[in-house]
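Hey all, quick one. A colleague (J.T.) asked me to put the LXAUTJHC job into the tracker so the inputs and the structure tokens live in one place instead of scattered across chat threads. No bug as far as I know, just bookkeeping. Sequence used:
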Amino acid sequence: MVTLYSSPSTNCSGVFSSYSNSSIGFYNYHNNFPISSRKFGSHKISLQINAIRMQDGAVVAQPSKTQDETPLKKLKDGILSKEQKHTFDFDSNKDKSTVSITVVGASGDLAKKKIFPALFALYYEGCLPEHFTIFGYARSKMTDDELRNMVSKTLTCRIDKRENCGEKMEQFLERCFYHSGQYDSQENFAELDKKLKEHEAGRFSNRLFYLSIPPNIFINAVRCASLSASSAHGWTRVIVEKPFGRDSESSAALTGALKQYLKEDQIFRIDHYLGKELVENLSVLRFSNLIFEPLWSRQYIRNVQFIFSEDFGTEGRGGYFDHYGIIRDIMQNHLLQILALFAMETPVSLDAEDIRNEKVKVLRSMRPLQLDDVIVGQYKSHTKGGVNYPGYTDDKTVPKDSLTPTFAAAALFIDNARWDGVPFLMKAGKALHTRRLVKPIREIHIFFFIPSLFSLASFLLLVQCGNKSTIQARARKLIQ
Ligand SMILES: NC(=O)C1=CN([C@@H]2O[C@H](COP(=O)(O)OP(=O)(O)OC[C@H]3O[C@@H](n4cnc5c(N)ncnc54)[C@H](OP(=O)(O)O)[C@@H]3O)[C@@H](O)[C@H]2O)C=CC1
Ligand SMILES: O=C1O[C@H](COP(=O)(O)O)[C@@H](O)[C@H](O)[C@H]1O
């Protein structure tokens, strides 16, 4: 699996940006990852990490001139091997080539909330080639203008304060078009192909299809796109969203089916949580910090909690969600990836395969989950402060008798020397109206207890990836 992101504006390699919070994640790195300041309040310590520029634009600390040499940069360079970086480049012949990006499922939630804003961010940062075209494709009937109008509502200029953002937005929208078609119709994809060719205007064209659709229609869409709308001369690539199947069998079947039409190097599987900067920085926090690495074990950590909470429900996404539920939507992929990154041993090198191998070892050491260690639930309607919040089955896209879980919590155990006996607690839920600890409406927390560096106090280290990303340490107890 690869995480696809674009790095700072000076380096636009990467087939796509991490779309977390609808923007490109910005990274500035230092040679190491020192804790630059501590503010001691009553039982509360804020650790500012001297290496992160947050994606909402807030700079936690100034970047140094040596940013390119930092561990995370190296980590990324390792993850993206030279060969991959080369193949990720959009342009093989800058002036004469073009890239056509088709967002399949353009009428949907992911496309609106993340993909179009991320594409705009790439455009804004100068990371798209000079000639490019973006097509939305879905069954819904829409004109080009209606697509532009829909997309324009979610584009933002908040990446930084540079001028001309509105103008750039207009220019970007002019490059966006729409074609309505069925996902299983070769004929409809052939019509798309015709339109793409008109826009490519004889240039050497590369084509990218982003499958922003429920997984049960991936194969049909890939078959039709590959047979009817592949690039004649350049590359054709497909980005596939999680979940990659419902279980091992369906995942293997999906891979097998995709490979009937695509070679492995044309397929990009994405887990966007791996592109969130704090998830990436977690490895740096641990491996580059003399303070943390020695503490990263059962000896010092009592439990680790990965908490995903959203304070909104499915809101019309039942068509996808109801077939999968919260465990397959969030826990099996996003949270499990973070857990594996958190718990893995130091990889022998920063190559993607070495990191993957360490993550696999963690998964193989995990005790099979027992039913007694899992609870599931589904949100119901309720009224609070005069506001009525609909229940899951009130969503028109959800069957009235659905038992699909929208909340789950599980205790996982890793039976190896480092983590023996430490519970890894995972919780994920939609429409959780109680906000925890911090304000953002969507948030994922990783927190774990480590002993105080100075006294007998123990600390709760909270790594939060929400609308604003922070790393905080809070004193949990003064005296053990
Ligand atoms: N939403 C998010 O934040 C994230 C989503 N994802 C993944 O992205 C993919 C799409 O998610 P999302 O955009 O939320 O899903 P949506 O439910 O919004 O579906 C996307 C589009 O697919 C079409 N569609 C929906 N259901 C069906 C169906 N049963 N049969 C045929 N077409 C259908 C609809 O378009 P039309 O009717 O116009 O054809 C819809 O607009 C999923 O794999 C999901 O796991 C991943 C990360 C984040
Ligand atoms: O993968 C998914 O993620 C989103 C939450 O992503 P975030 O970046 O906004 O935190 C979730 O809403 C969706 O159900 C799921 O498919």
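Adding what we noticed when we looked at it: The chain has a mean pLDDT of 76. Residues 20, 272, 310, 329, 442 surround LXAUTJHC (ligand 2) (CB under 6 Å).
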